[in-house]
């Protein structure tokens, strides 16, 4: 009887651990009226994010220019044409997807004090993709 109980406990632990391991590391977040996800460290996490890509109308990618290596911990600020900040966060990985209302925005991306600014026109039907590439550090 003790062996049967021990076996059942072990099976329960294995099932619980596999369920925890399968949970997504990607968490949807919101800031004001902007919903976003960020991450992409590792191939599996990038695949998870790519599966969500269609839900967001702005996709950002952060890389090193010469090598194409991915970057994380990039400070991101998105503001409209009037300077109103809609999103201010730090990217958990090389990808950040956001859902913004249609309009003109400036995306500021800062990696170790080197800032790159790009314009983004967000429409109602198409998504906008921007690649931020920094010189070798």
Report on the architecture of this protein.
By secondary structure, the protein is α+β, with helices and mostly antiparallel strands. It contains 2 helices and 9 strands. The chain has helices spanning 2-22, 43-52; strands at 29-31, 34-39, 58-64, 75-80, 85-90, 95-99, 103-111, 114-122, 128-134. A 5-stranded mixed β-sheet has the order 1-2-6-3-9, covered by helices on one side. A 4-stranded antiparallel β-sheet has the order 5-4-7-8, with no helix packed on it. Strand 4 and strand 5 form a beta hairpin. Mean pLDDT is 86; it is low at 4-9 and 12-23.
- Order of helical and strand elements: HEEHEEEEEEE
Strand line-up of the largest beta sheet: 1-2-6-3-9
Distance between the termini: 63 Å
* Rg over CA atoms: 19 Å
Content of β-strand: 35-45%
List the total number of helices.
Answer: 2
Shape: globular
Main pleated sheet: 5 strands, mixed
Structural class: alpha+beta
Number of strands: 9
- Helical content band: 10-25%
Instruction: Enumerate the spans where pLDDT stays under 50 for 5 or more consecutive residues.
Output: 4-9, 12-23
Average pLDDT, all residues: 86
């Amino acid at each position: 009887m003790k062996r049967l109980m021990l076996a059942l406990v072990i099976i329960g632990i294995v099932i619980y651990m596999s369920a925890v391991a399968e949970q997504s590391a990607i968490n949807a977040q919101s800031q004001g009226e902007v919903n976003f996800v960020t991450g992409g460290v590792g191939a599996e996490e990038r695949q998870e994010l790519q599966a969500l890509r269609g839900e967001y109308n702005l996709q950002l990618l952060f890389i090193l220019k010469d090598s194409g290596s991915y970057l994380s911990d990039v400070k991101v600020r998105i503001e409209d044409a009037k300077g109103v900040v809609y999103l201010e966060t730090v990217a958990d990985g090389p990808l950040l997807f956001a859902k913004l209302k249609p309009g003109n925005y400036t995306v500021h991306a800062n990696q170790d004090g080197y800032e790159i600014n790009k314009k983004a026109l967000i429409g109602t039907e198409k998504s906008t993709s921007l690649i931020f590439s920094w010189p070798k550090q």
